[in-house]
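User: Can you predict the 3D structure for this chain?
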Amino acid sequence: MTVRRLAFGLFAIALFVRGAVCFSNLQTYSSDPDAYRAIADGLDQTGTFGLVDPDGVARPTAFRPPLYPYLLSWFFRDGILPLVSVAILHAILGAITVLLTFWATLRLSSSTGRRITRVAILASLLVLVDPILLQQSRLVMTETLATALSTLLIGCWAVAIRSNTLRGAAILGAVMVLAYFCRPTFLAWAGLLCLGWIVFKIRERNQRAWMQFACTFGILAACVGAWTIRNVQAVGHPVWATSHGGYTLLLANNDSFYTYLREGQWGERWDSVSFERAYLHRFDADPRLAEFWKRDWKGPSAIERGEVTDVTEIEDDQLAYEAAMATIRRAPEMFAWSCVVRVLRLWSPFPHATDGRPGWINVAVSAWYLVILCCVCVGAIRIYRSPTFAWDRWWSVLTLLFTLSVVHAVYWSNMRMRAPAIPALSILAAAAFATKKQEAIDVANA
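Assistant: Here is the predicted structure, written as structure tokens:
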């Protein structure tokens, strides 16, 4: 069977499976936990990337990255986002991710033939049935889109780093921009990829490599600059990422969470109710003080009473950032330990128990990820030890894992945050199932 037929078959199977999952309960798309639907609604109603107040006036925002809300805004009809449309979008993105995993595996390898094709098929199937990706595909959140873009970027890097064309460099830069507009975390990844370009290409004293680097970096820098300038004009501050980072930092570094780390039992889930209640009262007292978080807050907050009207989202986020930094300064040892905990949570095979989820699902998911992570270790070792291993093609995979680990060591972290790395992990895991040593060598790049 030809590679094209295999790819078409994988896409068809993936579209059926992901479609079945996405359409299994359309009501899950009615929730909007991260305000992506609200921003998309603002785009649809007013053409402004912002939130619409009760009077129908759009307030520009930098609260979320722009790509996913823009995609959602295309599906609004008469001010309503059909749940079926979101299901179709996520099913297609999920199927594309499976197909991109197949393609990226082939691009990461220097060889062709049945051996590497089998590894690519297995990696694609692991992505197809991954529990995190299946769960996130049923929510109005960015994991599904971010995973597709991270997989595309891995494949584009593998092509561009071994080519001498400006076209490949331009495509690489464009995909970096799309990934960044989906998740600002990817900008750190893009920076490491640019660094890798200097190490692997420019050290060869190839003038063409400089032109390629200038093309890729220029596209990335121009778009980051454009988003920053837009935010200066729209929200009055040079936000290069989002105006949500302070809250995410505070969510990961607050007195309630630190107390949980000191006193909680292993496997016990952090109850964030006290933190959320206190945070709602952040304009009633100073959240940078330890006494604020120890107080038992009751009654309506200033926000609920409608007394907070002149605070911008930038000022609000800055207050959260300062409160988080104050917590870190009060307990530097606990901050260091919390960083370790967050990294372990990011890569943990064990999901926390949640209300309404049967216990057997947690057991099954834990068993799945235990096997996968063991296979990742075996596959990575086999690839690294092969005589034809090359750092340049695998640089995108290594830096993606590194970027997620470093960022989420400081900011809030849980299992779903590793969704963009699941195709990369699946490729490594698939290498462990190579039936012969030569197959792992094939995956390692000559």
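The mean pLDDT is 92. The radius of gyration is 23 Å.
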